[in-house]
């Protein structure tokens, strides 16, 4: 299916007016292309992994680094699992893919996690690299509420991916700063995974097998 043929509307989670496909993303020959998948990953699930894999393929990325949040300040109203558990689940989930890695920068910095800090730190660690920040349609719709939002688009190209149950409305993001792509629809959320574990339902095949075992070993989400 070509970019122009991509379906729009609630069924695909896209909205008219959004720039679709990788067409407007930076393309600098010789520069490394690093995807950045930020998330609370409480727990990491196959929706995150499919999104990262699909963006890597469509945008010809050399690597995708998963960056678990330290303190996700916009989730301050709920219990968040300790960062070390979320970090280890992210390592377990990504270990077999040579294109995936995990960074502790947001955890080790301490304090509330702001993506401007994440991207500045990654730029310092990765000279001669173009950064591509991956977000689901829900997170992209909230981006103007992020701290120092106006700086974000000078630090990385943003890629919004479709997510079942969320229609992307363009909140007025800068032209050329954002691309939207369709990814295979997986109606999985960390919230639902936590609720399933709490009520004794399985999360097999929603999260990687090693993550199911880690949740069990550490008795995560039992009392929620
Ligand atoms: N099923 C999915 N499909 C596409 N993108 C997703 C999916 N689940 C999460 N994402 C995106 O991955 C990033 C990290 O998400 P996060 O770790 O908050 O997971 P979540 O499932 O949204 O968690 P919670 O339910 O706890 O809010 C966000 O940009 C989010 O939009
Ligand atoms: O920079 C901010 O103020 C900001 C506010 C909310 C979310 N984010 C980032 O968005 C990504 C997804 O966050 P979350 O809370 O939906 O897991 C993650 O990388 C967060 O650090 C960033």
Automatic annotation (TrEMBL):
Residues 1-36 are annotated as: Disordered. Its EC number is 2.7.7.18. Keywords: ATP-binding, NAD, Nucleotide-binding, Nucleotidyltransferase, Pyridine nucleotide biosynthesis, Transferase. Residues 36-196 form the Cytidyltransferase-like domain. It comes from the Bacteria. One of its GO terms (biological process) is NAD+ biosynthetic process. It catalyses: nicotinate beta-D-ribonucleotide + ATP + H(+) = deamido-NAD(+) + diphosphate. InterPro entries: Cyt_trans-like, NadD/NMNAT, Rossmann-like_a/b/a_fold. Pathway: Cofactor biosynthesis; NAD(+) biosynthesis; deamido-NAD(+) from nicotinate D-ribonucleotide: step 1/1. NCBIfam families: cyt_tran_rel, nicotinate (nicotinamide) nucleotide adenylyltransferase, PRK00071.1-3. Catalyzes the reversible adenylation of nicotinate mononucleotide (NaMN) to nicotinic acid adenine dinucleotide (NaAD). Belongs to the NadD family. This is Probable nicotinate-nucleotide adenylyltransferase. It comes from Streptomyces griseoaurantiacus M045. The lineage of its organism: Bacteria, Bacillati, Actinomycetota, Actinomycetes, Kitasatosporales. The gene is nadD.
């Amino acid at each position: 299916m070509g970019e122009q043929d991509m379906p729009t509307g609630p069924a695909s989670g896209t909205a008219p007016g959004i720039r679709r496909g990788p067409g407007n993303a930076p393309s600098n020959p010789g520069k490394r292309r690093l995807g950045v998948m930020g998330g609370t990953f409480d727990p990491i699930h196959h929706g995150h992994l499919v999104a990262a894999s699909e963006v890597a393929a469509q945008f010809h990325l050399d690597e995708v680094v998963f960056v678990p949040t330290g303190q996700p300040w916009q989730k301050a109203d709920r219990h968040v699992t300790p960062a070390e558990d979320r970090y280890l689940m992210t390592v377990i989930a990504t270990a077999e893919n040579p294109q995936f890695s995990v960074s502790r920068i947001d955890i080790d910095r301490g304090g509330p996690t702001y993506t401007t800090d994440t991207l500045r730190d990654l730029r310092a660690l990765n000279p001669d690299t173009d950064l591509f920040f991956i977000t689901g349609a829900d997170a992209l719709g909230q981006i103007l509420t992020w701290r120092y939002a106006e700086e974000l688009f000078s630090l990385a190209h943003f890629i919004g991916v479709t997510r079942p149950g969320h229609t992307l409305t363009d909140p007025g993001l800068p032209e050329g700063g954002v691309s939207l792509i369709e990814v295979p629809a997986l109606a999985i959320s960390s919230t639902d995974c936590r609720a399933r574990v709490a009520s004794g339902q399985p999360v097999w095949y929603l999260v990687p097998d090693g993550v199911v075992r880690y949740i069990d070993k550490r008795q995560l989400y039992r009392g929620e």
